């Protein structure tokens, strides 16, 4: 990896069912400079989800105690469960020079923007409401009631897209992945991300 001063932080948000998790997994698979911060949640694991890989699944009391200890960069209540990004996880990855993805909801994104204004916000949009609705239904991991709540929430979440730096439409996974990669690459090419490299280069000239 080219030496960077510190990794960039990319906030990636979307209404649920937009394909955000699939896109993030693809990015991680193909980019060794990139890491995702594993969040804490009080939501029970879905089938196939592993503790410490997809989330740190913790009881509500533990989560509330972490809030009191100010262990979170941001935290929010999403669909009745707590979700949060731990400061320690982000600092560790950032210190190692990785670019970090925070796959979080719009409430969390707003908190991170305030605390870390240099972070780069990306909002992923579905091509249409109808496509989002059919993707959520075909996922079949959630009850009808949860799907209805998520759709009702989607309009509010998509309205927040105006507060993000970049908008990516996920109509075709390959195109959306390439768009995300361009954003990440351009973040890496910023002068602020290459200060150490530039200084070292000049010292040895
Ligand atoms: P899910 O339960 O489907 O995994 O996630 C529900 C929502 O919570 C998604 O929008 C997801 O991005 C968001 N989320 C996941 N982790 C975090 C987190 O650490 N903080 C916040 N604010 N939202 C999160």
TrEMBL record:
Keyword Transmembrane listed: no
Reactions accelerated catalytically: GMP + ATP = GDP + ADP
Pfam families associated with the record: Guanylate_kin
Subcellular location: Cytoplasm
Domain of life: Bacteria
GO CC list: cytosol
Single GO MF descriptor: ATP binding
Keywords: ATP-binding, Cytoplasm, Kinase, Nucleotide-binding, Transferase
Keyword check for Kinase: yes
InterPro entries found in the cross-reference section: GK/Ca_channel_bsu, Guanylate_kin-like_dom, Guanylate_kinase, Guanylate_kinase_CS, P-loop_NTPase
EC number: 2.7.4.8
Broadest EC class assigned to this enzyme: transferase
Main localization of the protein described in the UniProt heading: cytoplasm
Guanylate kinase-like domain location: 7-185
Binding residues for ATP: 14-21
NCBIfam families (UniProt xref): guanyl_kin
UniProt record similarity statement: Belongs to the guanylate kinase family.
Function according to Swiss-Prot or TrEMBL: Essential for recycling GMP and indirectly, cGMP.
PANTHER family linked to this entry: GUANYLATE KINASE (PTHR23117:SF13), GUANYLATE KINASE-RELATED (PTHR23117)
Protein name from the UniProt record: Guanylate kinase
Species for this entry: Neisseria iguanae
């Amino acid at each position: 990896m080219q030496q960077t001063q510190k990794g960039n932080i990319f906030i990636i948000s979307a209404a649920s069912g937009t394909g955000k998790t699939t896109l993030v997994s693809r990015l991680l698979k193909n980019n060794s400079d990139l890491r995702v911060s594993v969040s804490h949640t009080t939501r029970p694991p879905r089938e196939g989800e592993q503790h410490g890989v997809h989330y740190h699944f913790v009881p509500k009391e533990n989560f509330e105690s972490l809030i009191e200890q100010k262990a979170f960069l941001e935290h929010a209540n999403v669909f009745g469960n707590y979700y949060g990004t731990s400061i320690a996880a982000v600092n560790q990855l950032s210190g190692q020079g990785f670019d970090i993805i925070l796959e979080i909801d719009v409430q969390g994104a707003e908190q991170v923007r305030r605390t870390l204004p240099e972070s780069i916000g990306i909002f992923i949009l579905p091509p249409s409401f109808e496509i989002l609705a059919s993707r959520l239904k075909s996922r079949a991991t959630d009850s009808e009631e949860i799907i209805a709540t998520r759709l009702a929430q989607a309009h509010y979440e998509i309205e927040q897209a105006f507060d993000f730096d970049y908008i990516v439409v996920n109509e075709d996974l390959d195109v959306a992945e390439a768009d995300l990669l361009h954003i990440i690459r351009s973040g890496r090419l910023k002068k602020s991300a290459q200060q150490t490299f530039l200084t070292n280069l000049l010292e040895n000239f």
